[in-house]
Design a protein that fits this description.
heterodimer; A: 14 helices; B: 0% strand; globular
Chain lengths: 258, 304
């Protein structure tokens, strides 16, 4: 009985810690006009044309990152499961590298290697590459778990005996069977890329993260409105993941947009 | 039964012959080539470059001065100290509080719905980091934050007069905790589920009390998971940049902040030193990773 009381107390502290900052942010964002609560800060935030530009850029880069990450991870993991099982620890190690090389260090290295070539500076290739690296750990984990749940060999042989080529096997057999696993990777990548700051700011690309930071240095109240928007994005993405993959592991992530 | 050849062979000690390894190139490797190419170009090449340039003097010659400087230059020592302290503080704090919360929702006798809600929320909170998180805490405990105002109007307590500031290591620790302890909850909740009823019963049958059970059975089993997650949290905080930058600008001199400044303009006035700074970070993170992998192996023993 006494232990249950302690459980409630700890839960209460947890609740306060979780929700007080969210409530405070929301309350703060409503205080733009003196003396009353309004959505003025949101109006200001949403009428800034730069908001849509930055948001649009981040959206575009998120989509590109997801596509490249999928094209890189799914065939590789599939192939490793099918033909090169001994390579699995190596591939897994590589996907965990963003934990060893934090974002800010990776940017530093990327600039040292590619910074002098105008091509790499004029096209957001380093940015996307950085985002793909960030997405590797959970994309791999999700796809790996998904592949383990299906019989890769039998599916492949069945498809082959029906005359399917590798492209058909990958896109019409493997991808559809991994839908749930892939979707959780996709939404997590989306949530991370949309608010990412480190890569975008240090590689100087006008993404949503640096935009938020800039507004934060310039104005009061509007940053908190953007913060609420960003939280809803995260909440939405994770909510979708939990709905499609009930209890699947890998929702907590490391080495993300810290 | 009629096939006696194999047993004859066994009798003579002759091994069944395997096909000789084919000297032919294994074309299956081509399937993973794009992935490895990507990893080499965008992960290993940058890391290796950092490694080699750490040994480069401004004039391009070989030197180990940069590595020595890591342990002698005041700013750099301070930055490592700040980063290490905040990582240790939030790893310990996150582990303790995360464990308690996980225990409360899994074994604490709370209504079942609370658990799934808490786990869902932990999933969101562990991903809510960076710039928006920093703003959230400015709104909470910044100069005009909600808690600050409550303390002022409700209790007549002015934190500024008391000389309190949130823009130091402790303030930033509170912010980091927001994404730290949910991760502990996410990892600990399934681990607590893995504690089998039989173990507790066995302990009770042997005359053990609840305290004995925790001291000699449950805790030793959970220890590797607990330590492993703490190491994970340590690394998680050590590599963080965006949250700290947006929260306090360059008030708090973390290693990541210093590296960021070094990228934007050579603040150390020595590119080689910047590389050494980054290398130091990779080394610490690598050791962290090794510790984590080791602990995870230990933890896996009990989950078979």
């Amino acid at each position: 009985m006494r232990s249950r009381i302690w459980s409630w107390i700890i839960l209460l502290i947890g609740f306060i810690y979780f929700f007080l900052p969210l409530f405070a942010t929301f309350e703060f964002s409503m205080r733009m006009l003196k003396g009353r609560y309004t959505f003025e800060a949101y109006r200001v935030a949403f009428t800034d044309p730069r908001f849509f530009k930055a948001f649009g850029f981040s959206l575009l880069w998120a989509v590109l990152t997801i596509i490249i990450s999928l094209l890189l991870v799914v065939p590789t993991t599939y192939w490793v499961h099918l033909r090169l099982p001994r390579l699995r620890p190596t591939v897994e190690f590589i996907t965990l590298m963003p934990f060893v090389v934090p974002a800010v260090v990776l940017v530093f290295g990327l600039i040292r290697v590619y910074g002098r070539y105008t091509f790499f500076v004029s096209v957001p290739i380093l940015l996307i590459a950085g985002y793909v690296v960030l997405s590797l750990p959970y994309m791999f984990r999700a796809v790996d778990a998904g592949l383990r749940a299906i019989d890769v060999r039998t599916l492949t042989e069945a498809a082959q005996s029906l005359g399917a080529g590798w492209g058909t096997i990958l896109f019409r057999v493997i991808f559809p069977n991994l839908r749930v696993a892939i979707l959780s990777g996709v939404f997590l990548t989306f949530a991370i890329v949309m608010g990412e700051f480190t890569f975008a700011a240090l590689l100087v690309w006008p993404a949503f993260g640096p935009y938020m930071e800039e507004i934060g240095a310039m104005r009061a109240y509007t940053p908190q409105a953007l913060s609420v928007v960003s939280f809803l994005l995260t909440w939405g993405s994770i909510g979708v993941i939990q709905r499609i993959a009930r209890g699947a592991p890998g929702q907590g992530q490391i080495a993300g947009a810290r | 039964m009629s096939r006696t050849i194999s047993s004859d062979r066994l009798g003579t000690g002759e091994a069944p012959t395997a096909p000789p390894p084919s000297p032919k190139f294994n074309w299956a490797w081509l399937g993973v080539a794009p992935f490895f190419l990507f990893a080499i170009l965008f992960l290993f090449l940058p890391s290796i470059t950092i490694f080699f340039r750490s040994f480069e003097a401004p004039d391009g010659s070989f030197t180990i001065d940069n590595l020595i400087a890591l342990f002698t230059v005041r700013d750099i020592i301070n930055s490592y100290q700040a980063s290490l302290s905040i990582s240790v503080i939030t790893a310990l704090g996150g582990a303790v509080f995360g464990f308690l919360l996980a225990y409360a929702v899994v074994l604490g006798g709370l209504p079942a719905g609370i658990r799934s809600f808490m786990v869902t929320f932990s999933g969101v909170a562990s991903n809510f980091a960076g710039v928006p998180l920093a703003f959230a805490f400015v709104a909470t405990m910044g100069n005009a934050g909600l808690v600050t105002r409550w303390l002022e109007s409700g209790m007549g307590f002015d934190i500024h007069e008391a000389g309190f500031t949130i823009y130091n290591i402790w303030g930033l620790s509170i912010v980091y905790m927001y994404f730290q302890f949910p991760l502990m909850v996410l990892i600990m909740a399934p681990a607590l589920d893995g504690l089998r009823r039989e173990w507790r019963e066995a302990c009770e049958n042997l005359g053990g009390s609840t305290r004995h059970y925790w001291r000699y059975v449950a805790f030793p089993i959970l220890m590797p998971t607990l330590l492993g997650t703490m190491i994970l949290l340590f690394g998680n905080a050590f590599g963080a940049y965006a949250t700290a930058y947006a929260f306090s600008g360059s008030f708090i001199n973390l290693v990541t902040i210093l590296i960021g400044a070094q990228i934007q303009g050579d603040v150390l006035f020595n590119p080689g030193l910047g590389n050494a700074l980054a290398l130091g970070m990779i080394v610490i993170m690598f050791l962290t990773m090794l510790g984590y992998v080791y602990m995870q192996r230990r933890a896996a023993r009990w989950t078979r």
